[in-house]
Automatic annotation (TrEMBL):
It comes from the Bacteria. InterPro entries: NqrM. Pfam families: NqrM. It comes from Pseudidiomarina aestuarii. This is Na(+)-translocating NADH-quinone reductase subunit E.
Amino acid sequence: MGLFLAVFAIFLVVVLAMSVGFIVQRKTISGSCGGIGALGMEKACDCDEPCDERKARMAKEEQWQQNRIK
């Protein structure tokens, strides 16, 4: 039990140190080097015809973009 508490405390200190470092640097969280585009994929789902759920989401996003105040 003592070993578990020691390891837990070490992990807690490391996470706390990483959090403080992140806050001090004031950087935004960014993705990896290129993301999906680096794999040669143009979109998240690489199918020719998106599913109905994806089509509905895309239509909703397009409507939101059209109604946005510019």
